[in-house]
Design goal:
The protein is built from 5 helices and no strands. The protein is an all-alpha fold and about 120 residues long. The chain has one domain.
């Protein structure tokens, strides 16, 4: 899955917490979110309205970021509730390990996205 496909997929499932997200979808979307936040920050600093655009950009990508993170956890066979590890000290390290893990075969969250894209 390429950059544009990943961003389109994540935003089309804006608040979809069910299903699975491949590793490439998660990381390409994370890059897009990073670029959006950097661009909004630069615009704010140039215009002199910090944090107006930054806050709007952050709010616009907050829910899709959480949703794609939960779907990524589903892809590794973990419950979406593991996302709450972000609020525990050093829990972000565990989340990073989960996000880097390879997809598990078909599980309770649906068929493996690798198999779906391989058939197309």
């Amino acid at each position: 899955m390429g950059f544009a496909d990943a961003v389109q997929s994540a935003f089309s499932q804006y608040a979809g917490f069910s299903g699975r997200a491949r590793r490439s979808e998660y990381w390409w979307f994370s890059l897009a979110v990073f670029l959006i936040i950097v661009l909004a920050t630069v615009v704010d600093l140039v215009i002199g309205t910090f944090p107006a655009f930054y806050a709007l950009a952050f709010l616009a990508v907050l829910l899709p970021s959480i949703a794609v993170g939960v779907r990524r956890l589903h892809d590794t066979g973990k419950s979406g509730w593991f996302y709450l590890l972000a609020f525990v000290p050093f829990g972000g390290i565990a989340l990073l390990v989960f996000f880097v893990m390879d997809s598990s075969p078909d599980n309770q969250y649906g068929p493996s996205p690798k198999q779906i894209y391989a058939r197309v």
